[in-house]
Amino acid sequence: MSHRYFSWREEGVWRKHFLLSFSQIAELLPSYIDKYEVFTSISVFNENGTQLYCPFYLDFDGDTAYNDAQYAVYLIQEAMNVTPNIYYSGGKGFHVIIPYKIQHKNCNYIAKAWAVNISPQLTIDTSVYAKKSMWRLNKSKGSKKGYFKTQITPHELFNLKLDQIKEIAKTRRDKEFPKPDTSKIPEDIIQDAFDKHINYLPRIRQGENLKVYKGKFTDDMTPCLLHLMRQKPLQGNSNNAIFILARFAKYCDLNYAQAFDMIMTNKYLAAKELDTAEPKKVTRVLNYIYAQGLPSFVGCKGNDVFATYLRNFCEDECHFNDNCPSILQIIGKSNGTNSTVHT
Angle, nearest 10°, between helix axes 279-291 and 238-251? Predict the structure, then answer.
């Protein structure tokens, strides 16, 4: 039976994610969609939470989203012989979906491999390619700007101004749209995405050997994270510790409940090491990280929280991924070694 993760936002507060069957979601929607912001996972799972399939998809946010969506749809129509589904997100951008079923346990990474290779001119939000990423359900209303997530036609995307599209999204749209025919997508494009997806799996480096990270908390971790997992957070830094541990839990592919358990019951920490982390604080952080589709990798490059806080645990030689300078270089702390942290 097919399932999706289901959640909603009530008065700005995220609720717990539930793995529900399609029929269960259909039963809940009439009583939820008019009262709350409703979100579902992009991927489809079985009843045990194993990923079954997802579509090819793109998420565009920010100032260039409108133009990026137009160009992406043009490229897809030309190169893939299919007209994708197009949605104004109800917030900052657009979602473009080709409802082809990528039936693979790493389908999210296959979708990412396809997305990042469409064109270097596109500004794609790559954070949505986490396994359990969620986005607003079609016809669900956003609380911030009051727009509904709304499906539009290619003609509307190319011929209407952004303000005109937003005008359509002020009310729930019940228009029926034809299902895209994915049978003519060139096989070489699909195969290329399958071939390249391995480049986007979470990895670590040990000498010259690469292997997929399996979520073992104490095997082949960055030393700074290993120190953090074993030590009490520094005074006044419990929020930072929870944030980093939550990101690491997501990186290790723990679900929401497992991540909460890891932090609150100190399963991998000494007793009472997070005694200042009351449940509401942990829940708030987990809601933010798991629902917003934030990148789930752990490292220090380009992240002030990591670079500032993890410097306190930066002592040992560390190799992590492929393309960033040492944390010792980033924070200006040298111990005379050639150690390198990669994110």
Answer: 40
Residues with Cβ within 8 Å of residue 80, at least 6 apart in sequence: 98, 185, 186, 189
Residue 313, classed as helix, strand or coil, is helix
Q: Domain extents for the chain?
A: 52-197, 202-330
Cα(36)–Cα(139) distance, rounded to whole angstroms? 11
Amino acid 26 reads A
The per-residue pLDDT for range 239-264, each reduced to its tens digit, is 777 777 777 777 666 777 777 776 76
Gap between the Cα atoms of 192 and 248, Å rounded: 30
The CA dihedral of 150, 156, 162, 167, to the nearest 10 degrees, is -50
Count the neighbouring beta carbons within 10 Å of the beta carbon of residue 337.
11
Question: Which letter does DSSP use for residue 149 in this model?
Answer: P
What pTM did the predictor assign? 0.61
Name the 3-class secondary structure at 230.
helix
DSSP string, 56-104: EEEEE-STTHHHHHHHHHHHHHHHHS---EEEE-SSS-EEEEEEEEEES
Residues 82 and 55 sit within 8 Å (Cβ to Cβ)? no
Which residues lie below 8 Å from residue 297, measured CB to CB, with a gap of 6+? Answer: 202, 247, 251, 321, 343
Tens of pLDDT, residue by residue over 149-176, are 999 999 999 999 999 999 999 999 988 8
Identify the DSSP state of 132: T
d(CA 299, CA 244): 9
Q: Which uninterrupted H or E stretch holds 289?
A: helix 279-291
What is the CATH T-level fold of the domain 52-197, as seen in this structure?
Answer: DNA primase, PRIM domain (3.90.920)
Instruction: Give Cα separations from 202 to 127, 194, 262, 290, 314 (angstroms).
Output: 13, 16, 21, 17, 22
Terminal alpha carbon distance of the chain = 37
Angle at 329 between CA 327 and CA 334, to 5 degrees: 95
Tokens of 316: 């040992």
